[in-house]
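User: Show me a protein chain along with its predicted structure.
Assistant: Here is one chain, sequence first, then structure tokens.
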Amino acid sequence: MSIDVLGSPYEVREIQLPDDEEGKVIATLVKRPSNKQSQKAVLYVHGYCDYFFQKEMAEKYTDQGFHFYALDLRKYGRSLLPHQTPNFCKNIEEYYPEMDRSLDVILNEDGNKQVLLNGHSTGGLLASLYAHDTRDQNRISALFLNSPFFEFNENLLARKVLLELVSAIGTKKPYRKIPGGLSELYGQSVHKDFKGEWSFNTDWKPIQGFQLRAGWLKAILDAHKRLHAGLQIPCPILVMFSNQSSWVNEWDDNLLCSDTILNVEHISKYADVLGNHITKVRIENGMHDLILSAPNVRRVVYEELFTWLRAYVP
């Protein structure tokens, strides 16, 4: 372990993974231990065009007695290497090895007994499928999903025709560039140099996002189809999301109080197919990443989260 770019007390370890067609592959596990005697931990998994930088979230967890861990997946953030296509995968299960290795560290090396898996956006999609596929291992005590990416925020025609067409392209030409992607407006709504209050590395999380690729889009569509068919996650699940979505093409203050990336009704709909023990909470005026919302909003997020955790991860 060494000191992370966030500084002490954040520690970081590199997870070596098998090479892929682009060459060397690593993932990165960040740790902030709690000062309290505890055998509880949380593993946070970021979303698309993202990485772990949310120190306030880590501090909230450690104050509550959770040892905090965050995983920068392969080709994201700390794990992105110069020869790699940023944020790219052909199948969401490519991330399972670093999830496995992270849990090995948390449970075996560090001796924790209970693990909350916390996924945001695409990380919420990954966390859901991983929790389902590894359910017989009983290594995850609870699942918290922050605005999980359960469906593309497109109309029915686009989802059924255009996205399927791009997916077909992704089978044969996975690195084919696809127009579109994240709006610069979302990045501007969170970064302190624009309209937000947060500082992050824009090489790892560009304001304009990264170039979309057909193979990545196919991987996400395939993952959506699996989830939509229904999962059997055995542990308690908390799904939290904004009370509203908004669609804007130029700056509007609604960007600061709504989900401008996903349709929250999609999240609510597909949360019901995850398992049998589900709690859904709508957060008034929440942004896409709820913990980057306005201070009074994220105060409610943490109150709801830790009230739920006291019941299910005591």
